[in-house]
Amino acid sequence: MGYFHQQExxxxxxxxxxxxxxxxxxxxxxxxxxxxxxxxxxxxxNLTAKIARAAGDLAGADVLEVGPGPGGLTRGLLAAGARxxxxxxxxxxxxxxxxxxAGHYPGRLEVVNGDALAIDAAAMLAPPIKVVxxxxxxxxxxxxxxxxxxxxxxxxxxxxxxxxxxxxxxxIVARPGSKAYGRLALMVxxxxxxxxxxxxxxxxxxxxxxxxxxxxxxxxxxxxxxxADAGVLARVTAAAFNQRRKMLRASLRGLAPDxxxxxxxxxxxxxxxxxxxxxxxxxxxxxxxxx
Length: 291
Ligand code: SAM
Known about the structure:
This protein is 39% helix and 17% strand. It is an alpha/beta fold. Helix 7 links the parallel strand 5 (129-134) and strand 6 (159-165). The termini are far apart. S-adenosylmethionine (SAM) is lined by residues 37-42, 66-69, 72-73, 88-91, 94, 115-117, 134, 136, 139. Residues 37-42, 66-69, 72-73, 88-91, 94, 115-117, 134, 136, 139 line the site of S-adenosylmethionine.
C-alpha cells in the first residue's frame, strides 16, 4: 500500500486510541515546526505504530523516547504496550499535547521538559530498557555515540530503534569495502547488531526534510565480538579513518614506532587502507598496541 493511501487509515487508528488526529493536535496547540529544533513530525499513526513494532516486544519494557514532539511515536509506543515511556522534550510548547496522552494512559507516560544531552535518563528507568526515537538530526549522532560508549558494557539499554538521515544510517550498518564504512560502523558493530529496518521518503514527515531517512535497529550484544580496549580501539580507528586514503603504515605511524610489525602481527598488510580492514583486524591491532 502506498504512503498516501495509508494516510486514509490514519483516522481509523486515531479512533483506536481515542485521541485526536495529529494534525488537529498540532493546530490546537500551535506547534508550527521549528527548524532549529530539528522538528520534522510524523503524523501518520500507522507509520509510528510500525516504528514501535520494529523495536520488538515492548510489553514489560521501559522506553526512553527523545523528542516526542506532538506525540505520534509516543502514541505508537503506548498502544504497542510499553510498560512505561519516559519522553524527553526540549520544546515546552509540546507539553500540553503530551499531557493529554499521559492522561489517556495513566501512570505510563512521564514527560521531562529538557535537553536530552543534559539529562541522565537511564537513572529514571528500570530494566529492560529500550530507546526508541525519531531523533532531531542535529543531535542524533552525538546521542548514538554516547549510548554506544558507556563506561561499562552491557549498557543500560537493550536496544536502540532510531531514525537517522539515510546517509548516517548507512554509515552505521556499513561493511568493509564500502565508502560508508568507518568509525561509526566499527563503534556500533563491535558490541551490537545493527540493521536498517525501515526507509522513509522526505514526504513521510511534516514538514518534509531535504533528505531521506531510515530507521536503524541496534541490539546490544552481551559482550564485544572481539576483545579490545575501547579507548585504544577508538584511537586506532580515528587515526586510520582520518586519513582513509592513506596506507595504514602511514596513517598509523604516530601510534607506535614499529607499526609495520604490529600491523603484520595483526594479520594486516601495512600497505592496506582503512576501508579494507574488518572489525576483527582493528581489534587485533588494538590488542597489540595496548600490550
Ligand atoms: N517524535 C516526534 C515525531 O516523530 O513526530 C518529533 C520528532 S522531531 C524529528 C525531533 C523532536 O526532538 C522535536 O520535537 C524537537 O523539539 C525535539 N528536540 C530537539 N532537540 C532536543 C533536545 N536536545 N532534547 C530533547 N528534545 C529535543
